[in-house]
Amino acid sequence: MPNGLLNLNKPAGMTSRQAVDLVLRWARPCKAGHAGTLDPLATGVLVVGVGAATRLVEHVQRMTKVYVGTFLLGRRSPTEDVEGEVAELDNPPVPTPEQLAAAAAGLTGLIRQRPPDYSALKVGGRRAYDLARKGRPVELQPRAVSVYQVDILRYEYPELVLRIECGSGTYVRSLGRDLAESLGTAAVMAALVRTAIGLFRLEDAVEVQHLTAEDWAGKLRPMADAVPGLPRVVLAAEEIARLRKGLAIRRPPPWPAGPEVAAFDAAGGLVAILGPRGDGLLGPLRNLTDG
User: Fold this and answer.
1) What are 211-215's contacts with CB under 8 Å, separation 24+?
2) Taking the domain 232-287, which CATH number applies?
3) Which residues are known to be catalytic?
4) Rounded to 10 degrees, what is the CA torsion of 211, 216, 219, 224?
5) What is the C-alpha to C-alpha distance for residues 176 and 161, in angstroms, rounded to an integer?
6) Where are the domains of the chain?
7) Averaged pLDDT in 10-residue chunks for the chain of 291 residues
8) Among 19, 71, 100, 101, which is most buried by a count of CB atoms within 10 Å?
9) Is the dihedral of CA 147, 149, 152, 153 positive or negative?
10) Do the domains spanning 4-63+199-226 and 65-197 agree at the CATH topology level?
11) What pTM did the predictor assign?
């Protein structure tokens, strides 16, 4: 069965789950799962793992993400975007480009971010957005996220366009909220495009609605694309046979150091993610072979 990664361009109005379901129309009985949710409002890169590649989704989620977000200043909504009821502030301040640049710089690094009330995070076993829609109080605690860079691409009040590089778990609409609040105003997100997840780029993405039974498998990228930064080892056939049984292999030092090692066969295919087990042994953390 096919195993690999699809770099999809998700259109606006489609949920990430719906995109996966379209893939499953052609991929069944293979499994499929996405790496990093995009809201229906958002477009752009959605990486979907198919077959054994579903076991590598968390590796893709760790990759740096790049977004282009469009915000409207002087406005507020409960969802922090234009999907909610938008209210204009009465005579809000109009920030200067210099003030915006300084505020954007203050949002970089390892920061504490309060997620939006309308999010999929759970509060007492319930989705936050379910509670918010019913008018119940939502208390989401700030959490640490990494924001590597925030650049202003365009500013013509009230519209502000930002390019954001960030780590997993960052809410872009909340970055816009916090930037505006630091300048005494408010903001809602009007559009969002994810232009990259690691080496998965928008310019290389496939239009999800154009996939067909005949061509979808040909769009798969190798599983190795999920782990470009891991140290590598090449295994012999007998070592791969042991891994398929869940057994460790003996690889006395020197071998690549680290908590995870990408193991390949002689043909260059990714067959497992290994971890050290002491005494010169490497054992399977994720087995990616079919039998």
Assistant:
1) 211/22, 211/23, 211/26, 212/26, 213/25, 213/26
2) 2.30.130.10
3) 39
4) 130
5) 10
6) 4-63+199-226, 65-197, 232-287
7) 92 92 89 89 95 94 96 94 93 96 96 76 56 58 91 98 95 94 96 97 93 90 95 91 90 69 93 87 87 45
8) 71
9) negative
10) yes
11) 0.90
